[in-house]
Every structure is written in structure tokens, then in C-alpha cells.
Amino acid sequence: MKFLKYFTLLLLLQGCDTNYEWSWYLLDPNTIKGLTNLKFLISGFGITIYISVISILLSMTLGFIVALPSLAKNKFLTYLNIGYVEIVRSIPLLVLILWIYYGLPIMLGISFSPFVSGIIALTISDSAFQAEIFRAGINSITKGQHEVAASLGMNFWKKMRFVIMPQAVKTILPALANQFVYVLKMSSLVSIIGIADLTRKANELVVTTYRPLEIYTFLILEYLVLILVISYLVRKLEKKLKYK
Q: How many angstroms separate the Cα of 52 from the Cα of each of 48, 115, 129?
């Protein structure tokens, strides 16, 4: 085992070029070319945020609907929920994007634009994880809360809206935030079908500048900023809900 570790380390070191010269002038805002490149890269922010927000909202809605059968005593509905969750979680997101965009027109004669195909794939993929989050959150509420709601004459939907979900959301909020981060990062895969998000913009600039390290390093910083902003907002929301 030690030999294998040293051998792997040797291969990595041999592949490193210590003479690499970074060309940050490509992204220097004080030059016309650098400013143009920066504007081109940053222009992908809008698409990335837009597709991520729409996908997370739709996946939360679908995930909640998928989670409901698991709460029923009917075994068929329970197995239906398990089947959906396990099948969807087993499909790689990249494969799902390609299948929806390229496969559906061939199989069923149904075609969608790249933007819609990306949203559908992200929604379906994330809905399975959202379903498990909602199921765990709802099950964390004690039976006493359900009995109180029933004693007040509430039907299922009113019970969920006014009693169960307000309490469950406080529990599952960190997990929902993690899924938002997941969708935000995985949205980079939609660039493969031509959507002009952050990753697509970076790829296009790499092709013209032949400087992938600088461009992809800046791309990492872009995603880092987005995720840090989301994390900050979620923490603020958690504190606000905590004292309600």
C-alpha cells in the first residue's frame, strides 16, 4: 500500500509543470481585452441563477408531492414513492439532461428547447432528494401535533399547511439549503446542451484564449461567491425562524 501511495505521488509530481506562467492579464479590468473577458464571463450569472431558482422551486413542489404517498398507510403508494426515489436517484444528471434533450424527440417525438430541457432534468433529479427531505421532516413531527390538528377539525391539507409544515420547515431548512447549493453547482452541466450559463461562457473563452487554468480558476470563484451568498441568506433565515 505504501508503495502504491508513493508511486501515485510520483506520477502526480511528474505531471506538474512548475514553469507554468499565469496570464492574469486576460482578466485584468484595467485593459480593454481583460474587461471584455470579465464582462463575457460575468454575463453567465443571470442564466445560472435563473435556471437554478426555477429548478429548485419546481423540484421542491414535485418533491413534496412525491413525499405524500410515503405518509399513507397504503403499501402500494409507499412502494410507488420508494420506486420513484430510488430510480431517479440512480440516474446521473448528465445522462438525464442528454436523454431529455436528445432522446425524447427520437423516442416520443417530444422536443424541448435547451433551457426547458435543463430545467426539467434538474427538477426531476433534485425532486427525489427533496422528497426524502420532506418525508423526514414531516415524520419528525410528533403524533400529538397530528392529533391536535384532527381534534380541531382540520382536513389533511389544512393540517399540513397550518400545523405540520411550519414546524417541519424549521427542521429541514439546512437540508433544503444544501439542495439549493447542489442544484446551483449541478446546473453547470446544462452547458453541454448549449445553455449560456457561467460554465458555458468559461468554456467558450477557453477555446479562444487557450488559457484554461486562469479561466476555470475564475469560474470557481464565481460559484464560490454565489454559494457563500446563499449560505449567508440561509443562516439569516434560520435565525429568524428560530425566534418565531
A: 6, 11, 15
CATH code: domain of residue 178:
1.10.3720.10
Residue-range definition of the domain harbouring residue 128: 44-242
Domains in the chain, number: 1
Compute CA distances 192 → 12, 74, 83, 162, 197, whole Å: 29, 41, 29, 42, 10
Q: What is the pLDDT of residue 16?
A: 54
Q: Convert the pLDDT of each residue in 124-176 to its tens digit.
A: 999 999 999 998 888 888 777 777 777 777 877 777 877 788 888 888 888 88
The size of the chain, in residues, is 244
